[in-house]
Amino acid sequence: MLQLKTAVRLASFRQPLKKALLTAARLGVSAVEIDARRELHPSGLSQTALRHVRKLLEDLNLRVAAVAFPTRRGYEVEADLQPRIEGTRSAMRLAYRLGARIVVNHLGEIPQQPAARDTLRQSLCDLARFGDREGAHLAVLTCGATPQQVRELVDELPEATLHLALDPGELATFGIRAEAMAAECGCPVRYVYATDGVTDPARGRGVEVPLGRGVVDFPALLGKLEEQGYDGYLCIRRHPSDQALQEISHALEYLQALFQ
After folding, report:
1. Cα 144 from Cα 166, distance rounded (Å)
2. What pLDDT, on a 0 to 100 scale, did the predictor assign at position 205?
3. Domain coverage including residue 253
């Protein structure tokens, strides 16, 4: 049976790390997502600083659900690819040291051009092998890729190479149903955001909205996740706004009501 395990992306609070952790603890979530580029960069983290962060998490009864490592380009782009790979590896090491098993980044485009597609496959295989050794894996956001496009990529990769992170609100802005992605992508869902969105034909694009006010069918998504034995977190993420704290609090109430 699917259990409610809530997390929150600390960057949503727009607060320094310690203050954001205190805010998360007051809200009553079980875990947090930490940004390895802006909040806790691996290259500047000493053993003493790491122990301090782990002690603070322990004192607040919080776990680390995942480490985010957002990059400007995807893993199919040759330009500056090696630094991107090395940065992702560092984030995976950091995640493991913080007790997490997931690093989240966007996949990038799924190209049709043979050279770029081969670059993407090689990058994902390299990171999957590294994750097997280090104990933390990359879970990718697929943005506007369709379930069929993701499935075709999965079929070209060795088994257990690709792990998925679902952002239902972002998928909704592309007209993609999160439950369809979970059912048809052909790879395990390892991380799920609690987000919502709507399509806006007048503006020519979709927009994110507070949880429960968009088109995402969360009961259907939760049912699909339960079928697949998902045991991870539902991480609340809101783009920084003046009402972020209130919206996150309402999102927690919405999730709790779904599990009653």
Report:
1. 12
2. 73
3. 6-258
Q: Is residue 1 part of a domain?
A: no
For residue 224, tell me if it sits in a domain: yes
The pLDDT, as a whole number, for residue 199 is 82
Question: Which string of DSSP letters, residue by residue, matches 11-22?
Answer: GGG-S-HHHHHH
What pLDDT is attached to residue 43?
A: 83
Backbone dihedral region for residue 61 (phi beyond 0: left; psi -120 to 50: alpha; all else: beta): left
Torsion angle of the four alpha carbons 223, 227, 233, 238, in this order, in degrees rounded to the nearest 10: -40
**pLDDT number for residue 204:** 61
Q: How confident is the model at residue 127 (pLDDT cuts 50, 70, 90)?
A: very high
d(CA 162, CA 147): 13
| Whether 140 contacts 105, CB under 8 Å | yes
The sign one gets for the Cα dihedral 50, 51, 52, 57 is positive
Neighbours of 137 (CB within 10 A): 24
**Residue 125 predicted with pLDDT over 70:** yes
Element (H, E) at 247: helix 244-258
- In whole angstroms, give the CA distance from residue 72 to residue 84: 9
Buried b vs exposed e over 96-132: b needs ≥16 C-beta within 10 Å?
Answer: bbbebbbbbbbbbbbbeeeebbebbbebbeebbebbe
The total domain count for the chain is 1
Q: What is the reported pTM?
A: 0.95
- 236 phi and psi, to 5 degrees? -80, 130
Question: Torsions phi, psi of 163, nearest 5?
Answer: -120, 140
* Mean pLDDT value across residues 148-168: 97
